[in-house]
Amino acid sequence: MSKAEPNVYVNNVFDDGKTDDDVVYEKCFDTEDQSNYDQLSPVSKESPPKTVFTIAHNIPADQSIQKDNCRSQKIQVPWRLLFFISSFLITIVVSNVVTFITTKDTCSENKKQYRICSSFPCLNGGVCVNDDEQYYCSCTRGFSGKNCKVSPCTELNCLNGGSCQVLNGTFNCVCNSGFSGRFCEVSPCTGRNCLNGGFCEVSNGTFHCVCNSKFAGRMCEEPVCVSNPCFNSGSCIVSGNDYSCICPNGTYGSRCQDVVYEIITSPGYPLKYDNFLNISWHIDVGYRNTVKIKFSDFNLEDSYDYVKIYDGPSTYYNRLASYTGHSLPPELTSTGRYMTIVFTSDNLVRYRGFRAVIYTLTSA
Prior knowledge:
The chain is mainly β and 364 residues long. The chain has one helix at residues 79-118, and strands at residues 22-30, 63-65, 70-78, 127-131, 134-138, 163-167, 170-174, 199-203, 206-210, 215-216, 222-223, 235-239, 242-246, 251-252, 258-265, 278-284, 289-299, 306-310, 319-323, 332-333, 338-344, 353-362. Among the domains are: 22-79, no CATH class; 258-362, Spermadhesin, CUB domain (Jelly Rolls), CATH 2.60.120.290. The chain has one helix and 22 strands. GO terms for molecular function: calcium ion binding.
């Protein structure tokens, strides 16, 4: 008896008469224990490649033994179940896509609406409200228009310099001092009749009659000379439609208001002044008066010799002017009763100097 060849197990798949409607899968599991299966008929190694061999009929129809020691088993899955599962998955995917697109569109719309109101189009305290692709303004009381631009003060003019403000939803005129009424139409001059051709003006919230040159008084009721408009004992004379003042010696001006306080000159005037000078004049013209200085001659070394004038009793106060050279300076008036004047010269060229008249200005 010849030596037997080793047994060979060949994988066999059985269709078992199933139709194409069934999907067949192979389930492989370990078959190390092959005691329950009959061996296939021995096949000689020398058999041709396509030799047909007989399969044992006692192997279960839905199982086969593979040469890798596995056996395979058919699993049949109905196509209706597979179709149901596929449809369910497609429904989930489509639903998620629709939800994403809808959410994206909603977010885009919200952003668009937000951008409309983000520019704060509503004025005067109005509140912007989104309405689909448009907006509308919820205006505060008294205001109207698309952007709440129309105010109760629109096209309303308060009189006599008054200003309009919105109060409790309606207009309110804030009047200047002395004026009153809903539109500031009531003036301090209302009912005031200035006499003898005078006219009324409002000054500091009260009326004031501006009289012609021949009359004076609160209501222009007196001839001008009765009120004695001339200062420093000047005499008033009516001349045509005006008056004039005859001033005593030492007083000047249209109403004799300028009184010569003193005349000052540089040392040695009209001869040349000395070098290294530093001279001061301190002027005090008394309560309620002011100081005026008027130069009648001026000739100094330019940019080296100076006349400096201060608005107060010393050089620590505001300097009104600093003059040098050969040009005649303009008149200068203090703001109060004091004036300080300082003249300085260097050690080089000398000139004629200056002459100035100091006046006391009497307040009206």
